[in-house]
Amino acid sequence: MGINLKKIRADFPILKKKLIYFDNACMTLRPKQVVEATNEYYYEFPGCAGRSMHKIAAKVTEEVLKSRKIVQKFISAKKPEEIIFTRNTTEAINLIANSFKFKKGSKVLISDKEHNSNLIPWQVLEKKGVIKLVIVNSKSDNTLDMDDFEKKIKGVTLVSIVHTSNMDGVTNPVKEIIKLAHKNNSLVMLDAAQSIPHKEVNVKKLDVDFLAFSGHKMLGPSGMGVLYGKKSLLEKLDTFMVGGETVIDSNYHNHKLEKLPERFEAGLQNYAGIIGLAEAIKYLKKVGMKNIETQELILNKALTEGLSQIEGVKILGPLDPKQRAGIVSFNYKNVDPHQIALLMDNSANIMMRSGAHCVHSWFNAHKSKGSARASFYFYNTLEEVDAFINAFKKIVKFFK
Ligand SMILES: Cc1ncc(COP(=O)(O)O)c(C=O)c1O
Description:
Blueprint: H1 5-10, E1 20-21, H2 32-44, H3 55-74, E2 83-86, H4 89-99, E3 106-111, H5 120-127, E4 131-136, H6 146-152, E5 156-162, H7 174-183, E6 187-191, H8 203-206, E7 210-214, E8 225-229, H9 231-234, E9 247-250, E10 255-257, H10 271-287, H11 289-308, E11 313-315, E12 327-332, H12 337-348, E13 350-351, E14 353-355, H13 360-365, E15 371-375, H14 382-399
Parallel strand pairs: 1-13, 3-4, 3-5, 5-6, 6-7
Antiparallel strand pairs: 2-8, 7-8, 9-10, 11-12, 12-15, 14-15
Helix pairs in contact: 2-10, 3-10, 11-14, 12-14
The protein binds pyridoxal-5'-phosphate (PLP).
């Protein structure tokens, strides 16, 4: 069954304005159902979970558990306590980087195309002498060099790798990566910030050990993220942020840690965000993850085709849109990508991203200032893609 774009777009009040939003890899728009769910928390039961005995607190506790189960089911995790609520993907990765019991000199393997959020936490550990960072190269078409991966996986403690790249939309062969890693006794964490919002991800089938994603890239409230971990592995982690909510009891010199997942959720939480994230997932499930993937591919095909006809455009990654999810990242001759994005906004109200997309390391290694990036979500339309191509053609004339 396809999607009813007219009905869907009516759920996003901002789409009534004359604008085209192609910056979904950064943050998606939010449907009114999500905003209403967060408002309901603030208006109807704005208390804290887990502590107070009164009815409002009981309602928050119940809603948080319900939300946790919705997230659990969405990614097919075995148990609700395998879902840790965080602020975002970045915090989830930092949680692992700071609580994993690395032996001095343990190897952590990443790709050469990581977002700063999956690079800097490891660099900090390397600078402290805790780990050694191993970097796997991409091939000339920006897909991961699996021969290099196979060579470098030996002796690695943890692979922490991007699932779908925010830079060019390329999805790594994570099933193969996880199999090879496990064969070599390495654990795997996926940075799933750009995969979970766009396609079905089943952590059980993948057998992935840890996985991080952000709610605001999938219709959810800002500042809401998730760390998934296999229960047996989460239980072995050290603490990260600690304080209220993370302990059952304490005296002046000692404390007894809470069970999972509270052990990792320090302080009072973003309850409205948690409830809003669950509502976002309900919405995505109604649309259907397969439909989302299909719609993004239709849009990617159309934009790829349109841009390919313009002399001087170079798309990052493989030309085949099937290999670039909902992302079209490109350069036009030597024009500064920020200039392209600014002109698209000023001339046609088209919002896109430009620059290094927090993957400075890759652009620096390739002596590039960055790219202009259009990123879709299922509510975008072919008419919007046409408008993008037309606006861009006008800009191109300006640079001739
Ligand atoms: C691939 C990838 N990883 C990590 C992040 C960081 O996400 P957040 O800022 O929500 O923590 C992003 C955000 O753009 C991303 O695209």
